[in-house]
Design goal:
Order of helices and strands: HEEEHEHEEEHEEEHEHEE
CATH architecture of the largest domain: 3-Layer(aba) Sandwich
Number of helices: 6
Distance between the termini: 40 Å
Structural class: alpha+beta
Shape: globular
Oligomer: single chain
Largest sheet: 7 strands, mixed
């Protein structure tokens, strides 16, 4: 389990490096000798999901919080997050509270060896109408619909240059329209999964699970040996049925400027 947790942590940070490159106005800063990374997209200054800090060393994070705050202020970002992984020391949470952060969400970190997952479609699995490769518009449509995002927070701002990154979109269609989406990122032998979303009409039909299984099977065929993701409460049972194991809650510590909308 420790290897899976370390693989997730490295891949999670790599996903933010890729997101900085993919964003409409992406920026990334390193502090404390590279132990702390802050990623920003000023095109969506009120999105805590894409404006976020990842870190490898607790003491380095605590020391870097003023620098991170200054980085986001210069970028015009009003809402940003520090991710706190499972098992982090209490001193990190105390420092975040003192700096004005508060927990807003606690998705579950989940991971598994790819060989342990049930990636073959069963009798009830739907046939997939896959969109052509590189369908970032489909990823945007599914995620914006799933999270009911206003135009100012649309993921269209986040994936403007995604085609030039290691991020890979997977989209399944229903009636010719984007219906379910998954994004994968290979980091060494680890396959990180994010931006899993579906439109209301296909929820609980098995389409999203089938799409994820298809994407993971492709990653395994290309040499990946492990996978990880961050699950919402609704998504956790879906991933457990595939064979993912829970590693603990990932705390989302937001800081909001007074002018945030």
């Amino acid at each position: 389990m420790e290897d899976l947790a370390a693989g997730w942590r490295a891949a999670h940070d790599a996903s933010y490096a890729a997101l900085a490159a993919a964003a409409e106005r992406g920026a990334r800063a390193a502090f404390a000798g590279g132990a702390v990374h802050a990623t920003a997209n000023p095109a969506v200054p009120d999105s805590p999901w894409v404006n976020a800090v990842t870190w490898a060393d607790p003491a380095a994070l605590v020391a870097a919080l003023p620098d991170a705050a200054a980085f986001y202020a210069r970028a015009g970002v009003r809402v940003w997050t520090v991710w706190v992984p499972p098992g982090s020391p209490r001193a990190v949470r105390r420092a975040l509270r003192e700096a004005g952060h508060a927990i807003s969400s606690t998705p579950e970190v989940m991971a598994a060896p790819l060989d342990a997952l049930a990636l073959r479609g069963g009798p009830g699995s739907p046939a997939l109408d896959l969109a052509p490769e590189g369908d970032w518009a489909g990823v945007v449509a599914c995620n914006d619909a799933a999270y009911e995002l206003a135009p100012a927070l649309s993921f269209a701002h986040q994936f403007r240059r995604a085609g030039a990154t290691a991020l890979r979109p997977w989209v399944a269609r229903a009636g010719g329209r984007p219906a379910a989406a998954v994004v994968t990122l290979r980091h060494g032998a680890h396959c990180w999964v994010g931006f899993v979303a579906s439109v209301r009409a296909v929820r609980r039909t098995g389409m999203t699970s089938a799409l994820l299984a298809h994407a993971l099977a492709d990653a395994r065929a290309a040499g990946a040996t492990a996978t990880s993701l961050e699950a919402s409460p609704d998504g956790r049972p879906v991933y457990e049925r595939l064979g993912y194991r829970a590693l603990g809650p990932l705390e989302m510590w937001e800081r909001r400027a007074a002018a945030a909308v």
